[in-house]
Amino acid sequence: MSRSSLGTALVTGASSGIGATYADRLAKRGYDLLLVARDASRLNALAEKLTAEQGIKAQVLPADLTEREDVRKVEQRLRIDEDITLLVNNAGIGPKGALLEDDIDYLETMIELNVVAVNRLGIAAAQTFAKRGKGSIVNIASVVALIAERFNGTYSATKAFVLNLTQAINAEAGPKGVKVQAVLPGLTRTEIFDRVGSSFDRFPPTMVMDVTDMVDAALAGFDQGELITIPSLPDNADWNAFTAARSALGPNLSHNHPAARYGVPGA
After folding, report:
1. N or C, where is the chain less crowded by C-beta within 10 Å?
2. Which domain holds residue 41?
3. pLDDT digits (tens, 9 = 90+) for 156-173
4. Mean model confidence pLDDT for the chain
5. Residues annotated as part of the active site
6. Dist. CA 34–CA 7, nearest whole Å
């Protein structure tokens, strides 16, 4: 079997949902795959299916990314395998309920997966690809990064971390030839709610996007060179206005005296 000219895409959380859909779409584009998740049997089944259907090379790397030893195993593969040209940093878990009612140990596990693992793999990819002068990183965040008051605080904070990390990686690695994207889905129909004993039925159907539509939109944004892709946002001018408003704060975020409005003597 010939090696893909596009290289290999390493996809985390690839056993189902967004990750499995990315694997399918990337295989159809001609990428070879390195699939990462805890469930080895589902990974193997997906790898066999995509190999047979698309004629690509699909490998599996079982790993529990809530365990730091397993994260380092994936990181090492990412750093030494020169065939890897794309990281889809997707693995993550959602909340069980409202912040004041959730299990704090579970929330800490969420941070391990949604933040610690994403951070380590994202930075490892950025360092590795920057040295090569090429490569791509897709980090899966969420629109709740922008609306913290309307969702579980720990979960929205993890996704805000992913958004900020992506923007910072792009500032450093973008000029060195690394293509970077953060994807901010809204509600997406996957297993994430089933796993925590919840349901999409409590949301209006007009708010819940099919996972294939979400990934197809995200890849369209990737093709268009978007740094931030919000699949459901009708007019990107709204995001540009948000970014401009944030940038406008810049000149006044750090001075050698408090603002006069606080009435501090000598200000």
Report:
1. N
2. 8-237
3. 999 999 999 999 999 999
4. 93
5. 155
6. 10
Residues 154 and 99: their CA atoms lie apart, in Å, by: 7
Measure the CA–CA gap between 93 and 82, rounded to whole angstroms.
29
Q: List the Cα angle 161/177/118 in 5-degree steps.
A: 25
Q: Are 127 and 171 in contact (CB under 8 A)?
A: no
pLDDT reading at 266 higher than 80? no
User: Is residue 222 domain-resident?
Assistant: yes
The Cα–Cα gap between 107 and 90 comes to 18
Element holding 30 (H helix, E strand)? none
Q: Quick: pLDDT tens for 163-218.
A: 999 999 999 999 999 999 999 998 887 766 555 445 566 667 777 899 999 999 99
Looking up residue 227, the CATH number of its domain turns out to be 3.40.50.720
> Would residue 194 count as lying in a domain?
yes
pLDDT computed for residue 184 by the predictor: 97
**Calpha distance 19→35 (Å, rounded):** 9
Taking alpha carbons only, the member of 203, 239, 201, 208 closest to residue 221 is 239
The predicted-structure confidence for 78-124, as pLDDT tens digits, reads as follows: 999 999 999 999 999 999 889 999 999 999 999 999 999 999 999 99
